[in-house]
Amino acid sequence: MLNMAEGIARLGALAESPVVDTLARAFADAGFDLAIVGGPVRDALLDRTTNDLDFTTDARPDDILRIVKPISTAQWDIGRAFGTIGAKVAGEQVEITTYRADSYDGVTRKPTVEFGDTLEADLVRRDFTVNAMALRIPGRTLVDPTGGVEDLVARRLRTPAEPAVSFGDDPLRMLRAARFSSQLGFDPDPATVAAMAELRATLSIVSPERIQGELVRLLQTDDPVRGIRLLVETELIGEFLPEVPALRLEVDEHHHHKDVYEHSLTVLRQAIDLEHARHPDAAPDVPLRLAALLHDIGKPATRRLEPNGGVTFYHHDIKGARLARKRLQALRFDADTTTVVTRLIELHLRFFGYSEGAWTDSAVRRYVRDAGDELERLHILTRADVTTRNARKAGRLAKAYDDIERRISELAAQEQLDAMRPALDGNRIQEVLGIGPGREVGEAYRFLLDLRLDEGIVSEDEAEQRLREWWAARG
Q: What's the pTM?
């Protein structure tokens, strides 16, 4: 329950902070208005951590720069065309933007930048009422022209203008609704939900890079499942990530299998819980969360209904990895993220053979080798992929994975698994066999690596002898 008295007290403390007080005095002395705006005001009222300080003013960009130069250690004006000047004041990074009164062309979503004259008019053009509040400083007056406080109390997301107008101005706001729903735990009002469904096709005018950015911010929240459900409910997600709603496979009365969509959301939630438990101070692991969400997207294309009533999804791991790569590239994800996600999807079934019978040390080494730098993420994804309601089965799988992690740790201590290489490098292979660079060197290297995986560490002398025997046997 929102306690306004405590919230106002937190706003007062924010206004008294060195950076805010310094800026407030500087702008007042120069004869301009200044207000803290948007997220910092909302978060102070909700008692949430405030990471960014955003300000708005009636000063134009040139005036802003002139005012902040004497009180800041650095300034940047990359956003000057949009009225934004950045600076580092009292050790903190801030952004100060001239009041805006933009209009949109409705085709490219690019705004016609127009500077405004009043704080109230600036606030009305923002995305949601809970983000359209400001605190005037140094006077400490809360300005809330669209009912943001009431919506905070009701835990409601609502647009300041009619939703169709707001989303028509910038369709990306529909994705932000999902992100803020997850981030704040708020529900969009019915009119907002209806507009998201009705206007979903307009997302096509938004660049893939901006869509990707909002998807990442959604996945970075503690409860992205909430926002994903909203995107699926409104069918908005079909405009940029259609593989997710496609997981809602039809189940007929003769062929039964678990709900792949609900399973995937559970895996995502469990992966986040494990991420927090195993690495409590780490930043949100977006590649891991993407892999958890997408790990079964190959199932619709590989589903086969068997005569006995069973359902199979053979090779859905390989198919899913290919689909994920194509989709992530379309959304302009970087190559590293794409590679990590697709590798995790490729490997997410590998462990389940272990639970059916203990692996040899060689098999464990190969598991480590194949996972490479993503071994810890694979541990988390594989554990999260157990969603069975059968307590005995879940316990057996958990015990099996405890065992494989123990064996990996023991082998790592004994054999330096994180630096798994043959005893001989390419140059030494050429010397021992008396050959030059070429395909045979690569084949010999793979033979020695297999030897290392099968038998563990072997000495250099032993490796040379086995290499000569292998070469002689080739004829």
A: 0.84
